[in-house]
Structures are given as structure tokens and as C-alpha cells.
Amino acid sequence: MRYEGAIYRPPSEGRSLIIQLTVGCARNTCTFCSMYKDKNFRVRALDEVIQDLEMARDHYRNTKVRRIFLADGDALIVKTADLLLLLDKIKELFPEVERVSAYGAPADVLGKSVEELTRLRKAGLLMVYMGCESGDEEVLAQVKKGVSASELVEAGIRLKEAGIQTSVTFISGLGGSERLKEHALGCAEVISKMQPDYVGFLTLMLEEGTQLKAQIDSGEFKLLDVEEILTELELLIENIDSPGTVFRANHASNYVSLRGTLNEDRKLMLADIRAARENASYRPEYFRSL
Ligand code: SF4
């Protein structure tokens, strides 16, 4: 396998074989993100990617490969015909694979019809991770996400209709103090309309070299303190209506670790937040990371 630059994958893909289908992020505009700032976006030549699959098969000839993750940030930007060809090749070389997954930018999901997504699911693409970040139009515009809240909802619904499992992420604190309430309620609304399989709630962390870091340094944007983060989280959990969705805010960036299934665990999660507040038991700043 050959990898270009730093490779990112969701925590749940820690044991997956990673195959780099694209390099970088096609948009690269989000003010809080530094992941692919050093890469010029391109789709890798398909024959190169197939060679990587063959090299991986050779390397893992005595090991069963159960999961494959297609990196980098925009696998779904690739033409459907090429993705289908690749998924067929994966089946041929790794008949034991149980799941192929990828990051899917909302705009790229919307670039495919339900019928195309269904064909991809039937060919083995069973999970798409989609970064939503916020459900508030103003926050989405401020952080230059490049999509509206209604487009996020539409992308989530399209994946669901195609039978592809969806794991979506949002960022706590992204609206700062000024949009705390709108951000929490907007996220709750988008999640309730999408009804995804999994929701991950990270907490904003500052990364050097990002536009957001410069906005904080200049005083243009104010980071939330722990109390405000918990208020935002409470507001969010109180207002989501998405039965069956697995909710996780147990990432290393979160001050309080929460996990539950909506809506049945709502009260338990709210009680966990209250207990953390009463006992001031938060993850220390020096232990937080991305
Ligand atoms: S958050 Fe996602 S879409 Fe935005 S710049 Fe980073 S990788 Fe690209």
C-alpha cells in the first residue's frame, strides 16, 4: 500500500484496511479544519488504487480483512462507475470483507441519486461518515462548510433511502457563545429530520494554522467554557427526536463522556451531564485531543 501525506480515519475504522482513493479534501474551506491543508486535492488513478489493493492482498495473504475504509476526505466525489469497479475488485480480492466505508461530503452525496447510492450499497459500500458540523445556517456559513442545513438533511435522507448506514458528526462549541442556542437547536433539528444510525458529537479544539484560530486570537470568536459546552449539550439532547440513533459524545475532545441510544437513554444522558456539573468531573484540558 502507498499513502500520500497524513491519513485520517474515523475511530471506529481503527482496525480497517485503509485504501487511499482520493488525496486531500476537494473543498478544504472549513475554518476549523487543518486536516488536508497541506494536500492538493486529486482523485488517484484507478489502476494505482487497484495496485494498492493487490499489494494489500499479498501483504495480508494469511489474514482475513473484514473492513476496508476508502480515504481521504472525499471518496464519494469519484464517479459512480469507477466506485462500482473498485468495489467489484474489492469483492474479487477480499471475498471475506464485510463492510466497505468512506467519508462522504454532503455535496458529494447529493451529487449521486438514490439509485446510484443503492447500487453502491449493493456492491458493498455499507457505511458513510458525513461531517455536518452544525445545523444552524449562520454557523454553517460562518465556518464555510459550503452546504445548508436543508442540504445536510437531504444528504442524510438520501443515504438512508439507499440503505447505507450513516454516521454523522457535529462540533460542540462551533457557534461560540453568540450562537450557542441556535447551534444546539439547529443540530437537534437536522438530526431529528435525518434519523441517522450514529451521531458523534465532538468538542471544538483549536488547531494551529486554521482561520478559526486566527479569529479567536483576534477576539472575533469566543470559545465556550466547560459550563457553556454542557448547557449546549443539554439543550441538544433535550431536543433531539431520533429513536434508535446511537449518540456518542465520548471522543477524546469531549469534556464529559456520553453514550446512549436515542430517545430511550435521553434521561440517563441528561443525568450524566448534571452529575458531571455537580461534581465538576470533566476531562482535564491537557487530556483533550482530536
Ligand atoms: S471538515 Fe471535511 S469538508 Fe471541511 S475542510 Fe475538513 S475535510 Fe474538508
TrEMBL record:
Reported cofactor(s): [4Fe-4S] cluster
Annotated signal sequence range: none
Residue intervals of the Radical SAM core domain: 11-243
Matches recorded under SUPFAM superfamilies: Radical SAM enzymes
Keyword set, alphabetical order: Iron, Iron-sulfur, Metal-binding, S-adenosyl-L-methionine
Pfam families the UniProt entry points to: Radical_SAM
PANTHER family given in the database record: ANAEROBIC MAGNESIUM-PROTOPORPHYRIN IX MONOMETHYL ESTER CYCLASE-RELATED, RADICAL SAM SUPERFAMILY PROTEIN
Protein name, per record: B12-binding domain-containing radical SAM protein
Organism name: Ohessyouella blattaphilus
